[in-house]
Amino acid sequence: MMPVISKLYCSSSQTVLGVRRRPHMVNGGGFVVTDCSGQRVVFKVDGCGIHGTKEQLILRDGEGDALLLMRRKGGMVEALSIYKKWKGYSLDYEGLQTLVFSLKEPNSCLVKNNGIRISIEPRAASNKGWDFEIRGYFPDRNCSIVDIRGNVIAQVGVNKEVEKLMESKDLYNVVVKPGMDQAFVFGVIAVLDYIYGESTCC
């Protein structure tokens, strides 16, 4: 198992979860994650519109309790950097924040060959300086979160029948491999959704 937020969100078997995007007028956008039957809500992501805070997202469990706060660093240093950096903080029942991951998004054509990379915090001794990267293109709903050894730990895809009926990417699924922290996976997906200006974006 690889808990990042909590082992409560790690399953011993592969899990398929459905994602349904919300329009901006509902809770500021974001999306809802359900089990494969579509009956049980597993996670919710509030778009930044609900809090009026740009570049800040919240992942909640099915009961609505906040699990993870994702925030993009700002300021002049960030504007001049070749990367934009996001920080993911786990939230406990008292509201205390603990940094659990950081995500680097290329901010310049100078680093166009480097994809989006994620580091687990506190940093483990990794030669590459990162633990996971995004391969593929999220807006096409065809991408993976891959570990440093090249193993796919989560895959974003679209059911072809649904895509034909809907002619949109508002419904898609995510396959999470056994032992991987599903809350962490959907925290990363929330940031991707924001980066590409989709349902979580203001």
TrEMBL record:
InterPro entries: LOR, LOR_sf, Tubby-like_C. It comes from the Eukaryota. Gene3D superfamilies: LURP1-related. It holds the Pfam family LOR. Belongs to the LOR family. This is Protein LURP-one-related 6. It comes from Sphenostylis stenocarpa. The lineage of its organism: Eukaryota, Viridiplantae, Streptophyta, Embryophyta, Tracheophyta.
